[in-house]
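Table S2 (text version). Query chain:
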Amino acid sequence: MKVTLDLALLRDAVAWTGRAVASRPVSPVLSGMLLEAEGDKLRLSAYDYQISAQCDITAQVAEPGRALLPARLLVEVCKSLPRKAVELSLSEAEMIVRCGTAEFGLLTMPVDDYPKLPAPPNPSAVVSGALLQQVAGQVTAAASKDTTLPMLCVVRFDIEGENVWAAATDRYRIAGRTFAWSTIPPQGKKAAPPAFMMVPAAELESTVKGYGSGQAEIGWNDKLVSISGAGRLTTIRMLGEDYIDYRARLKLDYQTWAQVDGASLIAAVKRIGLVAEKSTAVRLSFSDGQVLVEAGGGGLGRATESVEADVSGPPVTVGFQPSFLLDGLVGVDTPRVRLGMNQPAKPVMVTEDADHPEYRYLVMALRLG
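Corresponding structure-token output:
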């Protein structure tokens, strides 16, 4: 195997593919990244039984071949190389990496022991990569990080033709987003895929970062989700189908609504949150013409700040854990944010400034003393 290629292409491909390498692989061979050179391309692959990643990049292939290299070391080596063309050449059990006057000899791993990657489902829909990235960014923040509760560590996609709901929850908040994609007619007489996907949130968030430009094709069956586009292919193993009825909880029936500039409210919550202790809340009081943001009064001190707001309905004061509220506010992509409230201890709805918002974030309010 002998190839020459652009450093920027290699560096980007190695970094993206390396996301699929587990930090604690179940088998030593899964700590490797597979390189396969043929024709005019170099393919990089990684797999950990939960997620697989393949990335094809253009290369001058003098000698085709394949090799398995330690993934983490390869990522770091590519980061360190000077900005020049890179040559990779396999010499017995060593991969020679030359770039300018720098040369590395990386010991290879047993390539024949590397497992076969799963076959991806046929594509069933196509969507803008930028939109997919935006949706994932809006909802994954609400997914649980507690891996002992795997069914809360997912993003649920409910599919109704070209209309899709995406949602995540950790029991303390729910983030939901509607969007549209274009369907792809099924090939042959294959059975229609399930009308939902349960995708692990961490894997989804890291994966979609590679599809920010162009279109992404989505495929799914009862076991796997696939995302492909721009020379990249990812498969992610799905979890089961049990999930809460989140759409019933994301309705917009609230007594009090407030419209406020999102950037101003985010800045105020961040500032006032500096004096909020772990066991206390940031309090937001909504009344005519303003929202008063308050925190503290304990061992760290206190702080207040008012932000202009259009408030309709009875005045109400609610308390939040600052990070939970901020996760919802930053997900709004309109300049003004809408907040819907009923009573001080009831959940609060955060949406974009629209009559039929695509993004909805329901966050549990803390009981105020």
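Notes on Table S2: The chain has a mean pLDDT of 93. The two ends are 69 Å apart (CA to CA).
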